[in-house]
From TrEMBL:
Organism phylogeny: Bacteria, Pseudomonadati, Bacteroidota, Flavobacteriia, Flavobacteriales
Organism, scientific name: Marixanthomonas ophiurae
DUF1731 domain sequence ranges: 253-299
PANTHER family reported in the protein's UniProt record: EPIMERASE FAMILY PROTEIN SDR39U1, SUGAR NUCLEOTIDE EPIMERASE RELATED
Family membership noted in the UniProt record: Belongs to the NAD(P)-dependent epimerase/dehydratase family. SDR39U1 subfamily.
Pfam family, one: DUF1731
Residue ranges crossing the lipid bilayer per the database entry: none
Name under which the protein is recorded: TIGR01777 family protein
Length: 300
């Protein structure tokens, strides 16, 4: 089996490539950096430039599944121009792949796209499943909607389409987790806002294995990729502090301070969604990290 991964050199893509190789799956990948192109029997890179409409069509040779992970980070300041970058990095890329495959004979039968739980409205009490159709009014929700619409167009090419709505990915060296840990390690840790906002988290090992599970079982549709037991911001903060044997700095960091410092990006820490993983579990996936305490222990 051979897959094509976009975003293969990112946090999830790097680990997913390793997991594919363990499973005997060859990986082609698209990169905008010619310096990152490698040519190995089970790992081949191909150049593309989505903003110029340029792509090496050899990337699709013998590929049966595309795993689309590409997208600019949302953790940089959201200037007007960068908001455009966040959106276009998820839509122009998918559109270029679609337009290329539409014109050529292809062996691709399955398109699996990353997505986000931030499509769901902020709530401290409502549990969201894949059946919920309410969409938040935030910029992030707008991005996720456009991202999923870009994925859905592949159905017109008679492909299975899967959208993986991912929660907060916990990883040792990159992403949200080190940023949460750092102030706690320095003795300045505190819950953010009222601390009651939900963090539907997932360990890096699980999100990678979920993609393999979807791939091997040919699953299609929407799947929430979050651990079975989400936690509030306050509980996450306290669990990390307890493991590090650090006191928390009180009181909680007020929401208005975070809004002054982060601007519109403050929704990343002040809002959250309580998301169900039941559909994924019913498909046969068994989580490695069900509760946050073992995940924190593993990463620290």
């Amino acid at each position: 089996m051979k897959v094509l991964i976009t975003g293969a050199t990112g946090l999830i893509g790097t680990q997913l490539t390793k997991e594919c190789h363990k499973a005997g799956i060859s990986v082609n990948y698209l990169t905008t950096s010619k310096d990152k192109i490698e040519d190995k029997p089970n790992y081949k890179g191909f150049y593309w430039n989505p903003y110029e409409g340029e792509i090496d069509e050899n990337a699709f040779t013998d590929v049966t599944t595309i795993i689309n992970l590409v997208g600019a980070t949302i953790s940089k300041r959201w200037t007007k121009s960068y908001r455009e970058t966040i959106l276009e990095s998820r839509t122009k890329t998918a559109n270029l792949i679609y337009n290329t495959l539409e014109k050529t004979k292809t062996s691709v039968k399955h398109f699996i796209s990353a997505s986000g739980v931030s499509i769901y409205p902020n709530s401290e009490s409502r549990l969201y499943t894949e059946e919920d159709t309410d969409v938040d009014t935030t910029f992030l929700a707008e991005v996720v909607q456009a991202w999923e619409n870009a994925a859905d167009q592949f159905k017109k090419l008679d492909m299975r389409v899967t959208k993986v709505r991912t929660g907060v990915v916990l990883a040792e060296e990159e992403g949200a987790f080190p940023k949460i840990v750092q102030p706690i390690e320095k003795g300045f840790g505190a819950p953010l806002g009222n601390g009651k906002q939900w963090m539907s988290w997932i360990h890096l090992e699980d999100i990678v294995c979920i993609y393999i599970h979807i791939l091997k079982n040919g699953l299609q549709g929407v799947y929430n990729a979050t651990a079975p037991n989400p936690v509030t911001n306050e509980k996450m903060t306290r669990k990390i502090a307890a493991y590090l044997k650090k006191d928390l700095w009180l009181p909680k960091v007020p929401g208005f301070v975070l809004r002054l410092v982060l601007g519109k990006m403050s929704i990343l820490v002040l809002k959250g969604q309580l998301v169900s993983s039941k559909k994924l579990e019913e498909s046969g996936y068994e989580f490695k990290y069900v509760n946050v305490a073992p995940a924190i222990k593993n990463l620290l």
